[in-house]
Amino acid sequence: MSGTSAALTPPADAQAPVRHPDAPAPGEPLGAHYDQCFGCGGGQPHGLHLEARAGEGVSLTAEFTVQPAHQGAPGLAHGGVLASALDETLGSLNWLLRIIAVTGRLETDFLLPVPVGTTLYLEAEVTAVAGRKIYSTATGRIGGPDGPVAVRADALFVEVKVDHFVENGRPAEIQAAMSDPDQVRRTRAFEVNP
Ligand SMILES: CCCCCCCC/C=C\CCCCCCCC(=O)SCCNC(=O)CCNC(=O)[C@H](O)C(C)(C)COP(=O)(O)OP(=O)(O)OC[C@H]1O[C@@H](n2cnc3c(N)ncnc32)[C@H](O)[C@@H]1OP(=O)(O)O
User: Fold this and answer.
1) ipTM over 0.85
2) Which of 9, 35, 102, 126 lies 20 to 30 Å (CA to CA) from residue 135?
3) Ligand 1 pocket by Cβ (under 6 Å)
4) pTM for this entry
C-alpha cells in the first residue's frame, strides 16, 4: 500500500524547480554538508555515510550500505534508519537549488525488508517549488540500481535562513561549525543565492 497525502500535493501555482548554475555537474559527488551529520558526515562512526552524486536537472543518486549498528529486527534495517536515508537523500537535493531547507514532512512507504549488508540505491528529484516550499520524491532500490523498490518517500522541505541553525542549535556545535572554514565556505555558498 502506498499513497501521498494532500499536504504533499503541490499547489496549482507551484513552479518547476530550477537547477542552480553553480550546482555540481551530473555525476559529481555532492560531499557532506556537515562532518557530524548522521546521514552524510564522515565523522559519525555509526552514521549512514551516505554518498550522493548530482544527476540531471534537480535530481541525484545516492548509496548507503546497511551496517549492523542500523538494525531494528535481527539482521534487518531499522525503519527509522531507512527513513533517515531517504530524508538525507531528499535534503541533499536542496544543494542543487542552493537553498537551505529543512524537512517539514516526510511520508515513507516500506515495501520490502532490507537486510544488514544490503546497499540501498537511492534516487531523488525535486518535483515542484512553491514559495518557501520544496516538494520532492525518492526511491531506494535493493539488489542493484535497477532492482526492486524497497522504500520510497515524498517530502516537503521548507526554506530557512542560516539563523534557523544559529538560533536553535546547541551553542557548542554552532560555535565549532562557525570556526570551521570549510563549513563557513559551504554555508556562504547558500547565502549568496538571490
Ligand atoms: C556557519 C554555521 C551555521 C551552520 C549552517 C548549517 C547549514 C546546513 C545546510 C543544510 C542543512 C540541511 C540539513 C539536512 C538534514 C536532513 C534534513 C533534516 O532532517 S532537517 C531536520 C528535521 N526538520 C526540522 O527540524 C524542521 C523543524 N520544523 C521547523 O523548524 C518549522 O516547522 C519549519 C521551518 C519547517 C516551518 O516553520 P516556519 O515558521 O518557518 O514556516 P511555516 O509558516 O510554519 O511553514 C511554511 C509553509 O510550509 C508549510 N508547512 C510547514 N510544515 C509543514 C508540514 N509538516 N506539512 C505540510 N506543510 C507544512 C506551511 O503550511 C507553510 O505553507 P504556506 O506558506 O502557508 O502555504
Assistant:
1) yes
2) 35
3) 7, 33, 39, 87-88, 91, 100, 102-105, 131-133, 156, 158, 160, 162, 165-166, 177-178, 183-184, 187
4) 0.96
Q: Parallel, antiparallel, or unpaired for β 101-110 and 51-54?
A: unpaired
Name the CATH code of domain 14-159 (choices 3.10.129.10, 3.30.70.1560, 3.20.20.80, 2.130.10.10): 3.10.129.10
The CA 74 to ligand 1 mean position distance, Å, reads 34
* Amino acid (1-letter code) at residue 13: D
Residues 74/164, Cβ–Cβ less than 8 Å: no
Ligand 1 nearest atom to the CA of residue 92, by list position: 14
Query: 172: which residues sit within 8 A by CB, 6+ positions away?
Result: none
Report, as an integer, the average pLDDT of 10-32.
96
pLDDT in tens, 49-87: 999 999 999 999 999 999 999 999 999 999 999 999 999
**178-188: pLDDT as tens digits:** 999 988 888 88
